[in-house]
Design brief:
two-stranded parallel sheet, UDP-galactose 4-epimerase, domain 1, 277 residues, 2 domains, seven-stranded parallel sheet, single chain, 12 helices
């Protein structure tokens, strides 16, 4: 096997994919816009000049969408075409549980891979547990003892980024290509009220979930510097949770990796110190 290119190599899942591959002695390259070390390469989705060096001696690539791009799907499809011509034979795309092939954004890349004739897999995880430790909720938990959403009593089978990385490594390195998509979920379906209670228990301090309206959450996001479009997109995603779109589990992770997903209860125990002031 040649090298594996990991785009988003310093992000939530990318850095974990890199660590897993290196732990297995599988050669890989961590790609990001700010590469600074051994085994890293400068890579910018919007700059095709950086692609040529990144895909040198690469057999497989893990694809994470560029943040902030107005049309990420077009950039990624263009990259896949260039990479295929350069000899990259397998692509594993990080998408999202609610984005089927042909849907918006990563759904377009999914559809392209499906009809491309190349080796491929699409990972469609639900919401990350790490949103509470590395993402939007950590600061409010730590500083305000609060979680703010427009998800109401909707429930989510939160999944660990470690489990997503494990699924990525499996699909990148398997002898036979998957040529399918996997909806990845955790094992516990929880509302944000449930999440607040569980975190409260492990840090021995009350965390409250505030159920906001769509407009209230958009205003809150805007006050923190997000654009109107980004703020509305995030708030709308919460409404899909409130409507029950994420209220299910799948066996895909176990079938793919042979291991059960990390439970949210175990996640809170492991990360209690992250939420203490």
């Amino acid at each position: 096997m040649g090298h594996i290119l990991v785009t988003g190599g310093t992000g939530k899942t990318g850095r974990r994919v890199v660590a897993d591959l290196r732990g297995r002695q599988i050669p890989c390259v961590a790609a990001s816009r700010s590469s600074s070390g051994v085994g890293e390469v400068t890579f910018d989705w919007s700059d095709p000049v950086t692609w040529e060096y990144a895909i040198r001696d690469v057999d497989a690539a893990y694809l994470v969408a560029p943040m902030g791009a107005s049309d990420p799907a077009s950039l990624m499809i263009q990259f896949i075409e260039v990479a295929r011509l350069a000899g990259v034979r397998r692509f594993v795309l990080l998408s999202a549980s609610l984005l089927p092939a042909g849907g918006p954004a990563m759904g377009q890349v999914h559809q392209f891979l499906q009809s491309s004739g190349t080796e491929w897999a699409v990972l469609r995880p639900t919401w990350f547990m790490e949103n509470f430790t590395e993402g939007i909720h950590r600061r409010t938990i730590q500083e305000e003892h609060a979680i703010y959403t427009a998800a109401g009593h909707g429930r989510v089978p939160f999944i660990s980024a470690d489990d997503i990385a494990s699924a990525a490594v499996t699909t990148l390195t398997s002898v036979e290509p998957s040529n399918t998509d996997f909806v990845l979920t955790g094992s516990q379906i929880l509302s944000y009220d449930d999440v607040a209670r569980r975190i409260s228990e492990v840090i021995d301090s009350t965390i409250t979930h505030f159920a906001l309206t769509f407009d209230e959450l958009v205003a809150r996001h805007r006050s923190q510097g997000l654009s109107e479009q980004h703020a509305q997109t995030l708030a709308f995603m919460d409404l899909t949770i409130a409507d029950g779109a994420e209220d299910r589990t799948t066996p895909d992770l176990v079938q793919l990796t042979g291991n059960p997903p990390l439970s949210f209860d175990e996640f809170t125990v492991r990360n209690a110190e992250m939420w203490r002031p």
